[in-house]
Automatic annotation (TrEMBL):
Pfam families, per database record: Metallophos_2
Similarity-based family: Belongs to the metallophosphoesterase superfamily. YfcE family.
Domain Calcineurin-like phosphoesterase: 1-116
The protein, known as: Calcineurin-like phosphoesterase domain-containing protein
Matching InterPro entries: Calcineurin-like_PHP_lpxH, Metallo-depent_PP-like
């Protein structure tokens, strides 16, 4: 999964060529061919979970409520834009995950990416991994 800000089509091509499946969206820094090839919102069933990916979710304040209203038929929402890791659950049970960024750490001490296991309708082993500078 990739929540946008690819910037370079070559990265999309490289990941598509190596991945069995890629659930990905464009970000605010993606234009031209990236916007032509990628949707604003991507959805799939993964390991029995209804998953969505979107780049931007707005302000951190009220994020769970807004996303639960926007994605009522989703179990897990992956998002990007802020480049800041995020892991919360809305009152509706929607899990919101932002893996941060392996390349642009923003106000974080290091870059990050996230791994998880989806199986039998359960998301487990959610791990945020640091990327050494």
């Amino acid at each position: 999964m990739h929540a946008g800000d690819w910037v370079d089509v070559a990265l999309l091509d490289a990941l598509e060529s190596r991945a069995r499946g890629l659930l990905a969206v464009y970000g605010n820094n993606d234009h031209g061919p990236l916007r032509e090839r990628l949707p604003e919102v991507a959805r799939a069933e993964v390991g029995g979970l209804r998953v969505a990916v979107v780049h931007e979710t707005g302000d951190a304040k009220g994020r769970e409520r807004r996303c639960a209203a926007r994605f009522p038929d989703t179990d897990v929402l992956f998002f990007g834009h802020s480049h800041i890791p995020w892991d919360t659950t809305a009152a509706t049970g929607l899990r919101l995950l932002n893996p941060g960024s392996p390349t642009d750490r923003r106000r974080q001490p290091y870059g990050t990416f996230l791994t998880a296991v989806a199986d039998g309708g359960v998301l487990s082993e959610v791990v945020l991994h640091p990327v050494p500078r």
